Every structure is written in C-alpha cells, then in structure tokens.
Amino acid sequence: MTGLDEHGRPLPPFAGGEPETIVGFLEYQRATFAWKCSGLDAAGLRVTVGVSTMTLGGMLKHVAFYEDHWFSYCLRGNERQPIWNDDHFDADPDWEWNSAADDSPDELYALWQNAVARSRDLLAEALADGGLDRPADRPRRNGTRPNARWIAMHMIEEYARHNGHADLLRESIDGLVGE
C-alpha cells in the first residue's frame, strides 16, 4: 500500500506487481464500503431509497456472506460459517438482505468485519500456496474451479457495485458524499 487517503482508505500501489495491485484494490473497495457504512445506528442501516428495498444493513450482511462464500467456502474448501449453514436461504433466497433488519448494528458490523478478517488471512494463505493461479479447493456447481485471481477480482467487482449503491443510500441518510 502507498499510504492512506483523506478518508483513511489504503491506496493501492501505483506500480506494484499483480498480486499487490489486486489485493490493494480489494482493500481499497473494502475500506470504501466501511466508510459508507460507518457510524450508523439501526435506523440508518435500515434506510431505503425510492422503491428499492436495499439497505446498508442488508448490504453488510450480503457482503459478509460473499466474503465467506468465495474465500473460505470456495477458495479454501472450508465448511460454511454456522450463520450461513441454516436453511434460511431455502425459505427466503434474499435472507441475508431481509434478515439484517432484525440484527443490531453491532452484530452487522462484527459479522462483516470478521468475514473480512478471515478472508484476508485465507487469501494470503492461498497466495503463498500457488499465487493468483491457485485453483479453488471447492468446484462450483458446474464443476469449474475459479482461481484466486478470479475470486479476488470478483470481490472487487462486488464491492465496487455495492459501493455505488452505498453512495446513494448514505447520501439520503445524512448527506455524506464522496467517491
């Protein structure tokens, strides 16, 4: 990393190698997401915009699920965290989004922060054990195995897309704007 910006986000290296650049952009997107969700109470985490049902609280839980899904479950072949093992998704395919309204801000922030911490460690282990070309331990339903590069890039895309949503939501809550 090359330092922090005015919002405390780590800047990706400007001339790093591929692994450092990919991890740098993933960390930057994670930090942007953390900034957009920071300091909100339960009411703030439940705010919607227009006809959308999307909330920052739902987004915290959704991204926590995908951190665990891609880095732990797929890349490293671990069993799912207990919260994701219940049959909630059978009853409601959008369970992580919808159930977040019942969770406290502390629970949502901790769920996401713990998922990110695990993912950081698991990605670092994978990079040390085969680099970006290391295939996932668990194949997808169709039998294909993405490599660590694809998984990290997919999570950058996941955060970038949701950071756009978070911009709109946060601006509607308290006027916080910025990239």
Automatic annotation (TrEMBL):
One Pfam family this sequence matches: MST
Annotated InterPro entries: DinB/YfiT-like, MST-like
Name of the featured protein: DinB family protein
Source species of the chain: Kribbella capetownensis
